[in-house]
What does this fold into?
Amino acid sequence: MSQRPALDDPSYHNDREALDDPSLKKSCPICGGQFVSIGRRIYCSATCKHRAYRRRHQGLVSNAIVGISKPRRNISIYECPSCGVHELGIQRCSDCGVFMTRVGIGGLCPHCDEPLAVGELMGEI
It folds into this structure.
């Protein structure tokens, strides 16, 4: 176990004087503050280290521009799992009272006015 040098030990004063030496001081790249670098230390504090990490990894999440979300319920086709009724924009079956599952986006058929999903027209559903 190493002991701390006594106040009258010359090595203690040499270390204290080394901390005041401007050639040993570095500038923190995040906040610009001055600090004494010990080892390979780059940042002055753990806070600046975390900020640098967040800045480096911030751009990796997504650079896509996302527009304002619009409600899809009024263009969604729902199907009742128990009776098979299709509805446009209504999530609860009026016949059974059961919540319906979403089939996909769609609208009313121009010929028969029945709710029709785009996937049904394409043969995917």
